[in-house]
Structure formats: structure tokens, C-alpha cells
Specification:
The protein is of the alpha+beta class. Helix content is 45%, strand content 12%. It has 19 helices and twelve strands. InterPro entries: DUF6638.
Length: 433
């Protein structure tokens, strides 16, 4: 993990919190959660206010996510909208936070000048015991408080202003006027500054949840599709009249579902050739096979000639796994015919030939699922499924870890947006990255 930290491949792009008054505001938010205060003189936070340093100090990675539902947040500054979410139980936490920031920008800008906002993204359940609990979450409500009680003071001042306007002779109440002056010194002119958030309820769209080893939930109007391990509690039993269930190892059904809902971009020369995705996955496959055959191999020093020599010497291993010759043949087929007849491809290999439809709102979620189906491609796993990447990284040999970090640093981190656009067709930048 030290290599990942040094290369900023984990907990990268976080916001430092070092000023004493900001640390005190953060601590007051922790007080509000009933969580021990931090004694740190500085730490970093992500979009939700999660701090890896405080998590280490408390010995609790879930200090802002105690039951892995009803996620807590601490907003210190509007700048957090540009940060990633580095620890969450739901893949759409970042999207919900973006919606909250966008819908309440004026209030967030005004309040965080003098205060910090904190609270919970409240779901309709408090604990997830089975799939039905996940499916019960149709919308979320942001319950918002403020560390210095700026919201409460603004509401009190608003009430006093209304009383002054409506109650005869209220202007002669010296105690009330004095209180109004005191409040106004703290809140500013509430006629100009909107201190109360405007929108707090948001739709809970398609997502991945890390419960039960990982559950994908896709929504198509009134139809819901769940993809997960069939041993998950509630599989095919929770709301069977309105939910379709697909086992995570049923490659044919998963693929057919994604195609039928137009979530996949099928292999055609128009995007395959300029993207280089097939060759990328072929290269990733060979690197993985080298590591499996010899964990001490120094892939950082391996050039094309070395790799070609290795493939010749290990032709049986390469052929038995099959991905490299399959992808090379796919490259030739696309060049010759312009497309691949996907129905003629073995179901478990189809995911090596596709990417998420770039114009579909679920493209990040679909690419996450694809990356899980193509495990040798650690680059795609890092881009779309960091939890899965970090779990796989822990199983890598030291030499392969060094190669993985060097590869990600020399490719993806050079220009993330350009890399995502070229390989996956993602045209707009996204804070999930």
C-alpha cells in the first residue's frame, strides 16, 4: 500500500484541513455524530468529508458509514465538490453528493464561510440484511445540520424577522431586537444569503453496493435487475414479481441484459481501432500470465522482445488461457470486416470485446461490471472498480505491484480524461475517477 500512497493511486487529490478553526468545526461535526474527536493537527478529506488519517486514528474505516447505509458527510468548503469519494458502500454516493452540491450551491457557499455542514444521506432502511433492504431504497434525503448551528441561528433570525413584520409593536421589544442584532452578526443578512439548503431529496438511481460481496442494481423504468452472487440473502425471493435476478457467473444472461437495454457498445471498427482497447487487454493478459508463472519476474524492465520471447517459450500456457490469441484474432477480424459477430463468441469471452455505451447514464457502473469480468485488466479495474483493484493488489507479488504502479503512473495518471476518452469513449470528466 505504501507504493500506492506515494504514487497517489490511493487517497489521491484529497483536500488538506490544517487551520485550527476548521479542525474545530470538523470536531464539532464529529460531536454531533457521537464520534470521538480527532487530536490530529492536520488531515485530508474527500468529497464527503471522510479522512483516511482520522479513520486510522479511530481504527474505524466506517466512522462516517457506521452501518454501511445512511452515509454521513461533513462539508467544510464548496471546493469539496471537485474531490473524489474514496470510501463508500454505494457506487452512486459521489453522484448523490454532486446533486446535493449543485442543487444547494448558494447555501453551501454562504454557510461554509463561517460554519461546516454535516449530516446523513438518509435511506429508508437502517441496516441491510438482504436484497429486499437494498431494493427498498428508492430515494434518499439529506438531513443537514451545521457545526456552529448556523442553520439554526438563521432559522431563528428568520422567525424574529417575520415576527417584527407581523406583530404590532414588536419593534419596541428591546430584547428581541438585541437578539436579532446578535444573530445577524453571525449569519449576515439572511435576505441576501440563502443559508438553508433548497433541495434535500434525491432519486436513488442504478448503483453497486458492497454488501454481500457486491450487488449491482439496474433500473429501467419500473423494471429492476439485480446482478450478484446467487447465495446472497433474498436472491430470487425478494420481490420476484418485479425484480429480475441474474447470477454473477451467468455471463450469457448478463451480456444479453446489457445489450437489450442498450448499455453496451458492441465491437465495431469505428471505435475498436482508434481506442486500442483490444490490444490493451491483450497486453494486460500477458502481464498477468507472466506474473502467475513467475512472481519474481521484473516486468518493469520487460520490452516487446522479452515478452515475445516469453510467449514463445510459454506457448502452451498462453494457448490454454486463451485470451491473448482470442484478442489478436478479434483485432484481425475487426480490421478485415469492420465488426465481430458477437453471437458467435463464447459468452464468457464477450466482455473482452465490449465497453459501456458512452452515451448511457450507467456507463461507469457498466464499465465497473465489465472490469470485474476481465480480471487481468488491472488498469480498467483501477479506473472503474477501485475496491476490486485494491483487493486484487493485496494478492500481487512485490515485483508485480511495482509493475502495476509503474504502469498506472505512466499511462492513466498522465492524463486521466484523455485516457478514459480514448479507451472507453467517456467524453465528459467525472469525479468518480
Amino acid at each position: 500500500m505504501k507504493r500506492l500512497l506515494e504514487a497517489e493511486l490511493v487517497y489521491g487529490r484529497l483536500l488538506p484541513v490544517e487551520e485550527p478553526h476548521l479542525i474545530e468545526r470538523y470536531n464539532k461535526a464529529l460531536d454531533g455524530f457521537g464520534t470521538p474527536r480527532t487530536a490530529l493537527s492536520g488531515f485530508r478529506i474527500d468529497m464527503t468529508g471522510f479522512s483516511p488519517e482520522i479513520a486510522d486514528e479511530l481504527g474505524d474505516r466506517d466512522y462516517l458509514d457506521p452501518n454501511r447505509v445512511n452515509r454521513r458527510f461533513i462539508v467544510m468548503t464548496p471546493e469539496q465538490v471537485n474531490l473524489p469519494v474514496v470510501h463508500t458502500s454505494f457506487s452512486n454516493t459521489a453522484a448523490l453528493m454532486h446533486e446535493f452540491f449543485a442543487a444547494n450551491a448558494r447555501a453551501i457557499n454562504a454557510v461554509t464561510i463561517r460554519d461546516a455542514l454535516y449530516g446523513e444521506i438518509e435511506d429508508s432502511v437502517s441496516v441491510v440484511r438482504d436484497i429486499d433492504d437494498l431494493l427498498s431504497i428508492n430515494e434518499v434525503r439529506f438531513r443537514v445540520l451545521s457545526a456552529e448551528d448556523m442553520l439554526g441561528k438563521a432559522a431563528e433570525l428568520r422567525g424574529l424577522v417575520d415576527r417584527l413584520k407581523t406583530v404590532p409593536n414588536a419593534w419596541s421589544d428591546d430584547a428581541m431586537l438585541t437578539r436579532m442584532v446578535e444573530l445577524a452578526k453571525q449569519t449576515g443578512d439572511i435576505r441576501q444569503n440563502a443559508l438553508v439548503p433548497d433541495q434535500l431529496v434525491f432519486r436513488h438511481e442504478a448503483y453497486w453496493a458492497n454488501h454481500f460481496g457486491g450487488v449491482y442494481v439496474f433500473l429501467d423504468g419500473k423494471a429492476t435487475t439485480v446482478i450478484c452472487d446467487p447465495t446472497v440473502p433474498g436472491f430470487r425471493r425478494s420481490r420476484p414479481w418485479q425484480v429480475s435476478y441474474i447470477a454473477l457467473d451467468d455471463h450469457r444472461r448478463i451480456f444479453d441484459f446489457l445489450v437489450s437495454t442498450k448499455r453496451l457498445e458492441l465491437p465495431r471498427a469505428s471505435w475498436v481501432e482508434p481506442s486500442g482497447l483490444f490490444q490493451h487487454r491483450a497486453d494486460m493478459t500477458i502481464a498477468g500470465l507472466v506474473n502467475e508463472s513467475d512472481p519474481t519476474a521484473d516486468l518493469e524492465k520487460a520490452d516487446r522482445i522479452w515478452l515475445q520471447t516469453w510467449m514463445h517459450r510459454n506457448a502452451d500456457r498462453v494457448a490454454a488461457e486463451g485470451s491473448y490469441p482470442f484478442l489478436q484474432e478479434a483485432i484481425r477480424t475487426v480490421a478485415a470486416t469492420g465488426e465481430i459477430k458477437i453471437d458467435e463468441v463464447e459468452p464468457k469471452r464477450r466482455f473482452q470485446l465490449v465497453r459501456a455505451a458512452p452515451d448511457h447514464p450507467d456507463q461507469w457502473l457498466v464499465n465497473r461490471l465489465i472490469s470485474q469480468m476481465v480480471p487481468y485488466d488491472f488498469v480498467s479495474r483501477f479506473v472503474f472498480d477501485k475496491q476490486g483493484f485494491y483487493a486484487a493488489y493485496e494478492r500481487y507479488s512485490e515485483k508485480f505491484r511495482a509493475y502495476v504502479v509503474a504502469t498506472l503512473t505512466g499511462t492513466y495518471l498522465q492524463d486521466k480524461a484523455a485516457f478514459r476518452r480514448k479507451l472507453y469513449g467517456i467524453r465528459e470528466d467525472d469525479a468518480n475517477a
